């Protein structure tokens, strides 16, 4: 188990704070410039408005930021571990398929790197299309 | 493909690649990706609704940047907004993909710096980045957005900006905005208006912030600098390309004599002349014009009527006289000390705007030896710079320059572009000739301007047509 004071002692650094990767990413959001971002829809950002971060990687990380009157503060979320709610027949099939493998079908199971593989397996097994050679 | 699908191998990139394969696109991979994107859109919307993300939804992680065009293509935006009754909310929420793979590292660094876990001198090199993307308080941000249209700001807003923490990023934003306005409007021109203090007197009016008074007890008798001396200073100003000569006199100084000096300098030098004298009427205003003055410096001082024996109304009348007869009115919020209320300071800023001062920056009160106001201390140059910035925003498109006094660099990054180098008498000095005391020379002012990237060699903006006269 990693501990802030242990790391501090080992490195000879007075102050160490451990952040999970999503929290670190969230803290960067207020500082991102135009080159760091790709805009998907042109909407006016409400300055001081809450911001959400959704990051599918190996797992599905989520975090959000709120303006505290002086600065943005980032908060961790375990939203990736909430239940996956299908919104069409295909997705309902996906959930049924994954329920055979997992006790809970969370968003992380379908919306992450491994989630993409799960979707692939499901579509393949359900005969959606042939697997190419 | 099946060969690559060995257990334990990371199949994610393979699926993505195969879906995008131009020659042999994999239908199964395409379908998987489409479904994935649709689910991602739905989950992004879940999150957006949970926090009401009016500040934006940001897609991070390794996958979105690799499938950017597929995200842009359709199923994502369709499912980001399928939440029936709440879809109105979603319409307002900006959506971005984070492209910078180092964003999380940056965030950790930003967080550490914000928490002062690292010292100012930290070599992280992220400080610039930090400033550039710095989000400031929405309230201040809105004020500054408006101010940069050169329309001025309201009294309440000016008060708010003067009450911000001096070390806050908001205060830096205020100064940065004022700096930008001035550099644009004044086209990079630095102005030096040379103050020539024509006389020293133990003045009986005894303004408590002035050193040239009976009470201050520094000067026991009158010193009227000779015409020869004044002319020498004026010529020196001309040679060193002063943009104006401001002839400064005490309230006791003979008005007729000021006119004589004006006529002399008008004959001998080509630099525009500005008078600083007592309150005057219309007839006297016209006389100043006839003698060759193009403008007059006249201020309603802070503490007018309390720290001075003069009436505020009378001072304002004189300003009206100047405007009526066609003399340019020059002004400064002065002499600012910690004893003055911000409301009084803001009042004077708006007085300057109302009567359309050619310039109206900020001068601080200086503690001369045994000043009766010594106990209040003096405001810092940083505070001056902030006041310079706020008064600049108040003035909107009115001014032709923006002054700060005494000369210092901080205000030149906060909207000021005008210094007063000084020779002769100064109301802030214990020396009869401030050129040998506190006063800064034209050369020193030039050096500070250049250091702060203002160009003293451009023509003045304050006196249109002066060069031809």
Automatic annotation (TrEMBL), chain A:
GO terms for molecular function: ATP binding; D-glucose binding; glucokinase activity. Gene3D superfamilies: 3.30.420.40, 3.40.367.20. Keywords: Kinase, Transferase. GO terms for biological process: glycolytic process. The keyword Metal-binding does not apply. Belongs to the bacterial glucokinase family. This is Putative glucokinase.
């Amino acid at each position: 188990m990693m501990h802030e004071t242990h790391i501090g002692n080992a490195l000879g650094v007075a102050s160490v704070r451990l952040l999970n990767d999503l929290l670190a990413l969230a803290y960067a959001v207020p500082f991102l410039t135009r080159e760091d971002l790709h805009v998907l829809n042109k909407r006016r950002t409400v300055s001081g408005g809450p911001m959400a971060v959704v990051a599918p990687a190996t797992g599905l990380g989520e975090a959000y930021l709120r303006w505290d009157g002086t600065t943005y503060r980032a908060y961790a979320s375990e939203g990736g571990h909430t239940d996956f709610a299908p919104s069409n027949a295909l997705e309902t099939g996906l959930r049924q398929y994954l329920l055979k493998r997992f006790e809970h079908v969370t968003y992380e199971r379908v919306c992450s790197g491994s989630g993409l593989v799960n979707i692939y397996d499901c579509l393949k097994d359900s005969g959606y299309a042939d697997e190419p050679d | 493909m099946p060969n690559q699908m060995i257990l334990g191998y990371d199949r994610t990139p393979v699926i993505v690649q195969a879906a995008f394969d131009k020659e042999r696109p994999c239908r199964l991979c395409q379908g998987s990706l489409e479904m994935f994107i649709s689910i991602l859109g739905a989950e992004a919307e879940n999150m957006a609704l949970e926090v009401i993300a009016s500040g934006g939804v940001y897609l991070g992680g390794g996958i979105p940047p690799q499938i950017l065009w597929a995200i842009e293509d359709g199923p994502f935006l369709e499912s980001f907004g399928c939440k029936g009754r709440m879809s109105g909310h979603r319409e307002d929420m900006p959506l971005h993909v984070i492209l910078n793979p180092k964003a999380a590292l940056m965030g950790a660094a930003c967080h550490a710096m914000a928490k002062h876990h690292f010292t100012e001198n930290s070599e992280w090199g992220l400080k610039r980045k930090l400033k550039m993307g710095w989000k400031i308080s929405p309230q201040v941000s809105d004020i500054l957005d408006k101010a940069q249209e050169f329309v001025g700001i309201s009294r309440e807003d000016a008060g708010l900006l003067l009450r911000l923490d001096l070390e806050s990023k908001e205060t830096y934003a205020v100064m940065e905005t004022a700096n930008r306005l001035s550099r644009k409007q004044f086209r990079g021109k630095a102005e030096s208006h040379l103050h020539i203090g024509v006389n020293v007197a133990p003045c009986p009016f005894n303004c408590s912030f002035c050193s040239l008074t009976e009470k201050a007890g520094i000067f026991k008798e009158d010193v009227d600098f000779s015409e020869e001396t004044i002319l020498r200073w004026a010529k020196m100003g001309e040679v060193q390309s002063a943009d104006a000569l401001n002839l400064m006199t005490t309230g006791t100084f003979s008005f007729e004599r000021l006119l004589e000096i004006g006529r002399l300098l008008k004959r001998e030098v080509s630099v525009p002349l500005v008078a600083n004298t007592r309150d005057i009427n219309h007839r006297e205003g016209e006389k100043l014009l006839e003698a060759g003055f193009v403008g007059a410096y006249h201020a309603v001082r802070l503490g007018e009527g309390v720290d001075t024996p003069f009436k505020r109304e009378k001072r304002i009348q004189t300003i009206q006289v100047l405007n009526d007869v066609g003399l340019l009115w020059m002004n400064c919020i002065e002499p600012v000390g910690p004893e003055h209320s911000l409301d009084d300071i803001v009042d004077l800023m708006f007085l300057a705007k109302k009567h359309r001062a050619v310039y109206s920056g900020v001068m601080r009160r200086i503690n001369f030896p045994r000043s009766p106001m010594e106990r209040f201390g003096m405001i810092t140059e940083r505070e001056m710079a902030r006041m310079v910035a706020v008064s600049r925003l108040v003035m909107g498109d009115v001014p032709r320059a923006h002054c700060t006094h005494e000369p210092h660099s901080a205000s030149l990054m906060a909207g000021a572009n005008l210094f007063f180098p000084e020779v002769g008498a100064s109301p802030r000095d214990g020396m009869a000739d401030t050129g040998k005391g506190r006063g800064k020379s034209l050369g020193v002012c030039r050096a500070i301007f250049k250091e702060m990237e203002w160009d003293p060699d451009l023509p003045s903006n304050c006196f249109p047509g002066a060069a031809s006269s």
